[in-house]
Each structure stands twice: as C-alpha cells, then as structure tokens.
C-alpha cells in the first residue's frame, strides 16, 4: 500500500525573517565542516537543558546579507535513537522538545561516497513533510572514486533541491547559501510503499498522535512509522512523553504482530531500503575507466589494521612521537630557559632584596618557568595528534583497539573518548555521550582519567630528567620510560573496565559498527592551527592559573615566617605548606615521598602540572642562600635534594613511584566536577576519586617496598 | 628597611591573586567544563579537524 503523497506546493516560510534550519546527517558526513563553513565563528555552543548533549547554534548570512539560524544537530544514522545525542536529534525534528522549536527547514548532509546508507536518514526526514535541502557532501572524493551522481535526476525524483558540495574546499557552499535564502522551497514528492501488514497500524497511530498528542498530520505519520521501528527505547530529559492512548494502540499492535509472527520493524526497514535501492540505482553510476578493486585506503588498511602488523605500526608511531618529544624539544627549551633567566636577572636588578623580590623571582617566575619550559613538548605532542587525526589514522587506532576493548567488555566506541583523554580527560568524558549503553558509558567515564593527559607530560618529563642523568643514560631509556607511563595508564584503564564490567556494572558486551574514513593527506593549515591553539591555551594557562597558584604557593611556603636566622629547611617546614606536607607525610612516607613531595601532591589537585611549579618554588626557597644551586636547573635541584638523614630524596625508585602515582591517582578537580555533571550525582565522582587514588597509593606502596627489598 | 614596604605589597599581591583565583573558580562553577583552560581544543576547531 502506498501512503498518500504529501502536497507538492511550495512551503511558506513559517517566519518572516531568520528562518531556522536544522542541519542533520550521519556521523562523519562532514556536517560540522559544512556548519563551520556556513557560520564561521558566529556560533553559540551550549547544552540542551537537562541532558548533556551539545547544542550548537550558528548564524549564516545569505548572499543578500539576510541572517539565517542554523542548528547543528548531533549526527545519527537514523531517527531510531540509540544514544542520548541521537535522541535529541530525533526529538528536535519531531517537535518533542519543549526547549527547542522544530526547525522550519532541514538541511540533510550526506556523504556522497556512501549515498545508499546515508539516504536512510534522509528518507525518514522526508516523511516529516518539512522543506528539505539535500547536500551531497564530499562530492570531490566520490568523483575521485569514479562515482557519477546524477544530481539533476535525484532532484527530480525527490522533488527537493540537491546541492553537490565539498565543504572542506568550499565547493558548492555559495550554491547552498543561495538555496538557503530561497523563500519557496518545495516539499518532497517522494513516495514509498509501507508494507500492507503495517499500514493499518500506521493509520491508527497517526490518528491517535494527531488527536491525543496534538501532532500535525505529516509529523504524526512520520512519528507513527518511527514508533514501529524505534519502539522509543531511548528517552532523554526535555522530551515529551506519548499520550497513554497512543501507547495502548502501539502495544496492542505489537502483541497482535508478535502472535502472528510478523517482524514489523524489519518489514518497515526493508521497505525503506527497497525504495532507497531503486533511487540509487537510477542516479549513481560508476565511471568505467576507474579501476575496480581495493582502493589505496583499503590496501593501506590491510597492513594498518592487521592483527599483528597493526600493533607494530601503532607502537612505532607512538615511539616516534615520544622520541621526537625528547630530541626535537631540546633547543627551544634552552631558549625558554634563557629567556626566563634573563627576565629573572632583569627583575632582580629592579627590585631590591625582600619579600616582593622573593615573590616575583622564587614564586611567580620560578613557578611559571617550571611549566612553560615544556611548551615545545606540548606543541610536538599535539602536532602528532593533529597529524594522526587529520590523516584518518585515529579511526584505525580505535579499530585495532576494538579487539582489546571487546575482551574487557567494551567496544571501540568507548576507545574514542579514551583516545581523546590523552589530550585531556574532560573532553574525553564529554565524548562518552555517544555511547549507547548507560553502563558502558559509566565504565568509560570511570576509567577515562587513567589515560595520561597533557598536564601529566611536564611532570613525567621533569621526573624522567631527575631520574636519569642525561649524559649517562641512552635516549631509548627515556623514551621507554615515557611509553611505559602511557601504557600503564592505558592498560590500567582496560583492567578496571574489565573489573567493573564483571562486578559493579555488569552488562553484555556491545557490538560496534565502525566506519573507517579514507586516508587523506594531512591538512597542514588545520594541524598548524591546532598546534597554535594548543600552544596559546598552554601559555595562557601558565600565565593565569599557574602564575596565580605559584604566587599563592610562594605565600604558603613562606608564611608564617620562622624567627630570623632559622635554617631554610626549617623555615619551610614552619610554613603553611610545610605544615600541610608534614600532616600528609605519615600517609605518603611508606611510598618513599617526604613532606616536600606532599606539598606538590596537594597542589596538583588544582592542576597536575603545578607539581613542577611547587618543586620550583620549594627548592628555590630552600636553596636561595646557595649560590650554586640557585644558578642550577630545577632538574639539578631535584637531583641534589636530600632527606634529613642526608640520603638522596629523588632516587630513581622514588621518581618512578611518583610517576606511577601520577598515572593512577585522580588529581584533577575539574575532572571531578565534570564527572559529577555527566553522571548527575556526587556518588560516582567520589567513588572515582577514592578508587583511583586508593589504587595509586596501594600500587606505589608495593613498588617502593619491593624496590627497597631489592636494593633500589 | 626595604623589607618594610615589600612585605605588605607582597601580601597585597597574594590577596589580589587569591581573590582572582576564587572569582575564576566561582565563574567556572556557574559554567562548568574545561572552559578551554585544560588544553583541549575548542569545539568549533575540533569539529573542523575531525569531520
């Protein structure tokens, strides 16, 4: 049975000015690139109320300067939502959300290289009876693959504007803007056959949705079709519930079909795919000159995703990254050190000896220098991350990790937030919103902070430098130590994920279908811009938060002042920071840490890299009477530091233990706050704080005590 | 003698810094998230390089 055709007359714009467009599409179809190309920096990013799904709204301008509002909706493969962000897309398009109006018009972005799969969502959206513009994005890639898409015929068959576009190069964007500014966008003429067994249910549900839920006729029909495939399993805050009568009708039909053995959902899905198959057969052709067979990407993937070679390549890339961090950063680090030294000398000449002098030199400059000196390493790290993302390798890394993830009860979908956590746990935790199963999402949130973030890098670098003298130890040892720290965090995350999936958050292991984008040449401008942005953020952070904390730390390490003539170490012990360090010492002494390290650990809760600032402030305070040590580097100061019994404080065992503590301990208040927001409770962040820090303490206790027994 | 004027000035700098840090933390509490301060890329740029 074929449902009645929707009207074909032009749809009047529902608003006199600034029509609202919803931008929808499958994940990885280039929707966000197009959104950025249309709106530039005129974007407002927030959350949908009550649900932690990002809402991006931007303003685009037509060729005549008229403003248009664009809502970038989360990517989804169909309106049958499986995760909170997909549910938001579905609810906005169906007008279920009270906080977001239904868009006047919809821009469907599809990946031209995967037209058949992408058209499933378009097919569902055309049922909504709203004016739709179809954008065939990545048309350049499709052409390179020898695909010929007859856009004019597609436009004719669907009855809506179809724009061929390559958002990354700007091709087709002007045509799209011209289409967006049209006031007479037509409604689709597409028709498809709803299976006869399902059609009466669609009609009955449509009538109830119109009558009891107040839906317009076409939206009611689209929602009826969706209810019969989606079963409305994922609901999020802000989404209005269905009327009881509609629920009753749905349940009665489901019971009837179940008794008759009718797989109603599969029948509907197959009917849609039949319709899409006919459409694509008519508009998509393959250039006969193009050789058929595996593409370049496929040939590379045969190696990169190989069960053995894939891991070897992954390990080589990681080793190359850390080797570059150690070898290439030396010269610029020297420049920064000289610059800070010159600044220190200049300020010393301006301010005579006294508290203000000490605050500026030993507090502000020393504290900031302890962090800013690692800027070159941060830039190199993000150069590699940008390069791997830009070429498409990151998706392959997730793919090879999927095998390991499945053994711990998670899938590659969880690895993408974990990969993001190498930069910072906060965006990683926010990226878990795409995980369908709530328990899997929670497990991923609980283990994400184990991945070594960029704030840990300066701490590792300082401790490795203090642990192994440059001249005596081969570079490979340092690279190996760094790889060990990153691996410890990664395997720790996997181990705890496995444990939680077996105990607290038991659930069936999920399946993952993942799309590997084709390899691309890295976008030099994008990678450079990313590096510049990261460097800017790092410098800004060093110049604001780290500077502020260094000044406060100097105060805590100086006041209350000990009587005149007190030795420096006793004066530090007398200070607020010293007292706090001493209070913590009984807990950390079995790990080989003394009260001065305790001060660093306490301060790391504000930001992990403040450990370096704390060490700079503490050891500058301690050695300010000692000309030689004053002139030395922080690394030398740590290597020279001794305990009260005269033994070395930063032995290789203590340095290693401290790094292990930083790998596993939860020392980031911002992450605690974000976990609280994402889980909507204090229970899970407090649990996370307790189990991570407790595990770090226990493991470090074992390492130190065993190390001592073995004579280290 | 120099210490006399340097000590209150140093304490004033500390007090102002502490106030600014608390104010920043309070503002962040009202708008939680990394706020671009954690080293992660801005959302718009992240979108550009990933898609």
Short description:
Chain A is an alpha/beta fold.
Descriptive overview:
The complex is a heterodimer of chains A (712) and B (51). Chain A has a seven-stranded mixed sheet with strand order 2-3-4-1-5-6-8, sandwiched between helices. Chain A is built from 31 helices and nine strands. Among the domains of chain A are: 20-180, Rossmann fold; 199-265, no CATH class. Chain A is of the alpha/beta class and 712 residues long. Chain A has helices at 31-39, 84-93, 115-126, 139-144, 151-158, 173-180, 199-212, 217-230, 244-260, 264-283, 296-304, 309-328, 330-350, 355-372, 375-391, 393-407, 412-420, 425-430, 438-447, 456-467, 475-502, 524-558, 568-574, 576-588, 595-603, 610-622, 627-631, 634-640, 652-664, 669-679, 683-709; strands at residues 20-25, 43-47, 54-61, 67-72, 105-111, 132-137, 147-149, 162-164, 284-286. With 51 residues, chain B is an all-alpha fold. Helix content of chain B is 73%, strand content 0%. Chain B is built from two helices and no strands. Chain B has helices at residues 2-30, 43-50. The longest helix of chain B is centred in the N-terminal third of the chain and has 29 residues, at 2-30. The chains are: A alpha/beta (712), B mainly alpha (51). Chains A and B meet through helix 1, helix 14, helix 15, helix 18 and helix 22 of A and helix 1 and helix 2 of B.
Could you give the topology of this structure?
The complex is a heterodimer of chains A (712) and B (51).
Chain A: E1 20-25, H1 31-39, E2 43-47, E3 54-61, E4 67-72, H2 84-93, E5 105-111, H3 115-126, E6 132-137, H4 139-144, E7 147-149, H5 151-158, E8 162-164, H6 173-180, H7 199-212, H8 217-230, H9 244-260, H10 264-283, E9 284-286, H11 296-304, H12 309-328, H13 330-350, H14 355-372, H15 375-391, H16 393-407, H17 412-420, H18 425-430, H19 438-447, H20 456-467, H21 475-502, H22 524-558, H23 568-574, H24 576-588, H25 595-603, H26 610-622, H27 627-631, H28 634-640, H29 652-664, H30 669-679, H31 683-709
Parallel strand pairs in A: 1-4, 1-5, 5-6, 6-8
Antiparallel strand pairs in A: 2-3, 3-4, 7-9
Helix pairs in contact in A: 3-10, 5-10, 7-8, 7-9, 8-10, 12-15, 12-21, 13-14, 14-22, 14-26, 15-22, 16-17, 17-19, 19-21, 20-21, 20-28, 20-29, 21-29, 22-26, 23-24, 24-25, 25-26, 29-31, 30-31
Chain B: H1 2-30, H2 43-50
